[in-house]
Structures are given as structure tokens and as C-alpha cells.
Amino acid sequence: MSAPYDLVVIGAGPGGYIGAIRAAQLGWKVAIVEKEPQLGGTCLRVGCIPSKALLESSELFAEAGHSFAQHGIRIEGRQLDLETMLARKVKTVDGLAEGVGQLMKKNGIDRFTGRGELLAPGRVRVHGYDGSAEEVVAERVILATGSRVAELKGVELDGDRIGTSTEALAYPEVPDHLVVIGAGAIGLELGSVWARLGSQVTVLEYLDRILLGFDDALAKDAQRLFAKQGLTFRLGSRVVGASRQGDRCLVECDGQEPIRCDRVLLAVGRRPNTEGLGLESVGLTTDERGRIPIDESFQTSVPGIFAIGDVVRGPMLAHKAEEEGIACVERLITGYGHVDYDTIPNIVYTMPEIASVGRTEAELKEAGRKYRVGQFPFAANGRARALGHTVGKVRILADAETDRVLGVHILGPRAGDLIAEATAAIAFGASSEDIARTCHAHPTLAEVIKEAALAVDGRALHS
Ligand code: NAD
Questions:
Q1: What is the pLDDT of residues 233-283, one digit of tens each?
Q2: I need a surface site. Which of 40, 63, 114, 241 has the fewest CB within 10 A?
Q3: Cα–Cα dist 266/186, whole Å
Q4: Which domains occur in the chain, in start order?
Q5: Where are the beta strands (DSSP E) in 308-386?
Q6: Residues contacting ligand 1 via CB (< 6 Å)
Q7: CA 390: distance to chain centroid?
Q8: What is the pTM of this model?
Q9: Distance (Å, rounded) from C-alpha 317 to C-alpha 310?
């Protein structure tokens, strides 16, 4: 049994390891338990980071085929070396995971490798890979075990041809025909990767739209752009089964012709990871969606046991988990810690990217709130034209009376980076006039945000 810690964190994803670092910074003796040999969680190992590596590589491959020539760069005999592309992705992940390990050392955080299981409040058993078991004792426990892919009845996952994002990050060859189930972030990002590398990609989506939760108008624009990039959408298609037949797969949709393909990517959401965590030993239960209920201090119904990230309510996003990790330990140690759930950006890293923060128009309408809209296209921005990435626009929604910015939605180049300014603006309670009167460097993509802010008041300069 280890010497008692102030805190043990179960799960070393972005929520867990960031919370551990913050607690160590504030003077606590901290342990972290992670079942995988690599730290960083789903996000780093088989999620955000490897997908971004492949998105970047596949985009360069696509551009080398169509837009390099416009820059006067001729490439004869463009060839895909998938093995090198995948190896670069692995190297990116390995380097970052190694970096998280260094951060644990630097902050004096003790690392335990194995599956963590609650035995009692403050007592965690770590089940090692070799069958060993060790006990970690701490004043408090934070559960940060993240989430896993939600399964779909009838879809027979085989860890190979019918798989999840994990398999889709490492297909050994470019599929001839990939069927993606679900037009959310995962389906569209990974569907884009393989479409750029040469696959025929069919996206099956139950709803009559893609990207639920994003601005309706921008989601429609995005769908049109993705269709031009080669993605075929079948909206209103409820998948009821997928099975393997040799090297081929058969996907069945309610009331439609089945589709034959050679790989299937299931991306219909994620579920909290709570199995085997020992919740029952301490009297914890989960809600109807498998989440652990918490109060505003992230405390579960058991004193001394806290939960953050994908295992609790709210969007399943790495940066939301990080904020909660920090707020949870700051609240415990300093008495103050807070997450502003109104300013959590949401980004889909397609080409172009889609980014959103604050309220959507649909939400404002439903709440009966009066608002004004300012929008501005990237096509009228000098930097976007120089880059050759001119599709998309910025939309700013501001309160009709106070002019306070309520939501910002971007479809366009580097939207994921641009949304940071909008997030800060909303966090500081800015008006669209505040953004409009802020000097934006020229020539930059960020000027589109300034112009959209001017457009709220009908005075955009370049349109
Ligand atoms: P999602 O919940 O975003 O989208 C799933 C889609 O599948 C929905 O549109 C849903 O209508 C559809 N669907 C459900 N059942 C279906 C059926 N039977 N047939 C056809 N369609 C069906 O899920 P996701 O894309 O798997 O992402 C999971 C989580 O991971 C989300 O919380 C997401 O925010 C997060 N994530 C975020 C990013 C990012 O921020 N870039 C990237 C990847 C994942």
C-alpha cells in the first residue's frame, strides 16, 4: 500500500492529467492511475491528435493533386505512401505522450499503470497488466475515465472492417468504399481523411441534417462543400445493422436498399467509461446515459469522490474536461474554481473547419431572445485569397438591445483557431461593437471576425 496522497486521479486523459498537474502546482501530493501504457487518454492516443495528423497529411495530399498547380507548383506522379503517413501520425502521438510523462515527473506526480478500481472512498486498487494488484490511498479521488464509442444494435463491430474511429485511424490500405455511420465530428473528420486519400465515402445519417448542434446555415453550407469533396450523404437513414461477409461488409438501413462496402466506420456518439471502476463498492450509481451525477463542485454523491470530463454531464470535449480538472482541484484547494459552460468552443476539423461558441440562432429563437446577425465571407478577405482558401463565412449573433455577443459561428480556413478570439469576447461580455473597434492586424483571417462584427451594425467595410 502506498503512503497516503492528497489526491489520486483515475484516468490520464486531458481532464485527469491536467487536474493532476494543477493540484501538484498548488502543493498537493498527487498520484495518477492510467490503464494504458501511454498517458494522454483517448484524445492523445486514438482521438484528437492522431486524427489531426491524418487530416493534415491527407489535406496536403489532396492539395498536391488539385491546388498546388494554381500556386505554380507542378507535381508529376503524385503518389500516396500510406505507411509513411501512418508512421508520422504514430510519431506525433508518441512524442506528445512522452511529453505528458515528463510533465508528470516534473510536477512530482506518481504514476501507476493499471486499471483503477474504487474499493472504498480514498482507496483505489490498481490492476496491473501482469495480474499484479496494488493499492493507492488518498484523501480524495477524481474519476476522469473518459468515454468509449457507443455501440449500435445490429452493427457487429469486429475490430477490423466494421470498426470505430480507432480502426479508421489506421486502415492498412485506402478502402475502395467506406461507409460512415453518423454525420457528427468523428464521421466527418475521418470520412474526409479517407475521401481525400481516394476512398468512395458514403455517410449515413439518421437526422435530416449533418452536425447537429452547429449553426443550421453553416452546417448546410458545409454539407454542400463536403459533397463537392466527394462525400456522399444519405440523410434520414437509420442504420439498423452492419455485418461482415468475407472481406466485404453489408450495411442495412431502415426501409432502404442495403449498401455493400469494404469498411464501415461507426460514429454515432460516445458513452462514459464506468465499467469496472468499482462504483458499486462505494454506492455510486449512473444516470440513464451512463454518466456519474455530480454537484457544482464536481463532487459525486459520495464525499471525497469527484468526477470530471466525459464521465459527467456536458459536451464530451477534451478542453471541457481540462477546464473541469482545473476547476475541480482549484475549488478543493483554494475554495474557488469555475467553468463557464457558455464559452466552450466546439470545432470540427474538416476542410474548411467549422467552429462555434455560445448560442446558435435556433437556440436564441427557441428562447425568444431578440438578436441581430452580422456575417462576412472569407472570399472578401485578402489573406484568405492569398492562401487560396476562400470558402465560408463568419456569423456573429448579438443581443438586439445590448449588442452583447451571444454566439459566433465560423465555417472557413483555420476556424478552429479563429474561434479563440470569439470565445474570449463572449467570456469578457464583449459587444459586437467592442470587436468591431478592436484593431485586427492586416492581412489576417481574423479580420473576417472584425468585419462580421461591423456587419451586425450594417457597416462592414469590404462588402
Ligand atoms: P455525434 O454525437 O457528434 O454524432 C453522431 C451522429 O450519428 C448524430 O448525428 C446522430 O444523429 C447519428 N446517428 C445516431 N444513430 C444513428 C443510426 N442508427 N443511423 C444513422 N445515424 C445515426 O458523435 P461522434 O461524431 O461519434 O462524436 C462523439 C463525441 O466525440 C461527440 O461528443 C463529439 O463532440 C466528440 N468529438 C469531438 C471532436 C471535435 O471536437 N473535433 C472530434 C471527435 C469527437
A1: 999 999 999 999 999 999 999 999 999 999 999 999 999 999 999 999 999
A2: 241
A3: 9
A4: 5-148+271-341 (3.50.50.60), 162-268 (3.50.50.60), 352-456 (3.30.390.30)
A5: 346-348, 353-358, 371-377
A6: 152, 181-187, 189, 204-207, 212, 237-239, 267-270, 315-317, 347-349
A7: 25
A8: 0.97
A9: 7
